[in-house]
Amino acid sequence: MDELQKQIILLFSIPIYALIIPLEILMSNFRHLNFYSWRETMVNIYLNILNAGVDMVVRLLFAFVVLNFFYKYHLAIEWHPIAYWLVLLIGEDFLFWLEHLVDHSSRLFWAVHVTHHSSPEYNLSTGFRSSVFMPLYKYFYFIPLALLNFRPMDILFMFSITQIYGILVHTQAIKKLPKWVGYIFVTPAHHRVHHASNIEYLDRNMGMVFIVWDRIFGTFTDEDDQIKTKFGITKPIATPYHPIKIVTHEWADLAKDLKKAPTIRDKFNYLFRAPGWSHDGSAKTTKQLQKELELAKKG
């Protein structure tokens, strides 16, 4: 990534670290809203540091190597400068949506992603509660962009910019934005739904910048003022402040399920089917829970 791109990222990110988060903390304390606690905020910072370390190594040793390899075989597309950056933004956001959908749809990848959802609090610092091992595979999703003649350094630059937007929507301070904004872009209200553990809200609103992918593919749900949002995951962590178990708790549960699975097929299903799938019906997936809730509401 060249020096100008680094300076642009710095320009965008400084207000988040130095201004917006402290303002949200002050507002939360002044209004007695209790959006922040020291312990959860420290966990968010800790997980972000772990993720940043893994991400730095992967970018240096893997991401550039893989993306540059496929870039050598890119299609002969001549992009207009405006179209280049616009298509890169839209294409990368869609591929992130796809990755995010897989993270929620497969137990193996959910075991990585779950740390981002595990906090019972929801604030700007939650945006930094990173899935530690996601850098090991997320760059694979960007290979199509390299094949479409987008430079690897520009792909990584755009991802860094969109991540900044993704952090900003982690807030309860902003309630509702104009309808036209929420029809195109992910808003704080949309992302609050995504982080909720209410059955109605599970596995919804996967977008980072654009909400249109969720609207198109049926994963969109609007925030309902009649539902009291509960943040976190459906099965709370027994030791939420343990520095290792906060990252590995779902891997431990997955290992137990694999051990008790009676067949190879069941083991495969535990790995790749949706979180909550079980061979004996002892646990339920999001779709099963939502179907039960819908039937209960109908009486």
Topology:
Blueprint: H1 3-30, H2 38-71, H3 81-105, H4 107-117, H5 143-147, H6 152-168, H7 179-184, H8 188-195, H9 212-217, H10 245-260, H11 264-272, H12 286-298
Helix pairs in contact: 1-6, 3-4, 3-6, 4-10, 10-11
Short description, anyone?
This protein is mostly helical and 299 residues long. It has helices spanning 3-30, 38-71, 81-105, 107-117, 143-147, 152-168, 179-184, 188-195, 212-217, 245-260, 264-272, 286-298.
What radius of gyration results from the CA coordinates? 20 Å
Structural class: mainly alpha
Give the helix proportion (percent range). 55-70%
Main beta sheet, described?
Answer: none
End-to-end separation in angstroms reads 57 Å
- Low-confidence stretches are none
Residue fraction in strands: under 5%
Number of strands: 0
Compressed to H and E, one letter per element, the order equals HHHHHHHHHHHH
Instruction: Quote the average pLDDT.
Output: 93
Shape: globular
**Helix count from the secondary structure assignment:** 12
